[in-house]
Write a structure and sequence with these properties.
This protein has helices spanning 12-23, 38-43, 58-65, 82-104, 126-143, 179-191, 209-214; strands at residues 3-7, 27-32, 49-50, 70-73, 108-112, 148-154, 156-158, 165-169, 176-178, 198-204, 207-208. The protein is 39% helix and 22% strand. InterPro entries: NAD(P)-bd_dom (IPR016040), NAD(P)-bd_dom_sf (IPR036291).
Length: 218
């Protein structure tokens, strides 16, 4: 059994991950900001933790994380609030979370990032360009840390029902993937701690999630 602290725990992927972890006998500790988010998370079998990532410093966040075995960072501004919120959550938030995990003595850190080709052949706005810059900078920061990290770069996220089958690799063609299957992949990475210090690109595919993650065991 692992205790998993989920930053972005009330988000679309975080909620799904909390349910999967609880079903697998783990303790999901999703961070939530709004009071109305707590009960739905409890109904998923989670043990929610109240806190606002943008208002916490590393020491305060470390205190909330304390006792956890794994940190999953799946928070994101999602285009809301413009560049300022992207910088605060996807950028500074990741910096704070990495420092907090180090202070709390938690080495295992999973980050949901962005597929490098996300904007290819599109007329990109300045805010999206900023989003991609911030995401890459966050990847660099985590990869240069001494943590036991995994960076997951999913393709275009959809709300279709998950199939439990994906394509995962160090470099793969761009494509779509249901949020269900992103959450399932995160849950499987937690089950397979030998998958470490690797950047994984992820789309829908034909390989069962367990096998797709297992082949990345380095």
């Amino acid at each position: 059994m692992s205790k998993v602290f989920i930053i972005g725990g009330a988000g679309n992927i975080g909620r799904r991950l909390a349910s999967l972890l609880a079903a697998n006998g783990h303790v999901a500790r999703p961070l939530f900001r709004k009071a109305e988010q707590e009960q739905p998370l409890r109904e998923r079998g989670a043990e929610p933790v109240n806190g606002d990532l943008t208002a916490l410093d590393a020491t305060s966040l470390a205190a909330l994380m304390k006792g956890s075995d794994v940190v999953v960072f799946t928070a994101g501004a999602g285009g809301k609030g413009g560049e300022e919120m992207t910088n605060a959550i996807d950028g500074k938030g990741l910096t704070t979370a990495v420092a907090a995990a180090q202070q709390a003595g938690i080495s295992r850190f999973l980050l949901v990032s962005a597929f490098p080709e996300a904007g290819r052949n599109k007329n990109l706005s300045a805010s999206f360009e900023n989003y991609m810059r911030v995401k890459k900078a966050a990847d660099v920061e985590l990869a240069q840390s001494d943590l036991d990290w995994v960076i997951l770069r999913p393709g275009t996220l959809t709300d279709e029902q998950g199939q439990g089958r994906v394509r995962a690799g160090l470099a793969i063609p761009y494509g779509d993937i249901p949020r269900d299957d992103v959450a399932a992949t995160l849950a499987e990475i937690i089950e397979q701690p030998a998958v470490s210090r690797v950047i994984i690109e992820l789309t829908g595919g034909e390989v069962p999630v367990y096998e797709a993650v297992k082949q990345l065991d380095n």
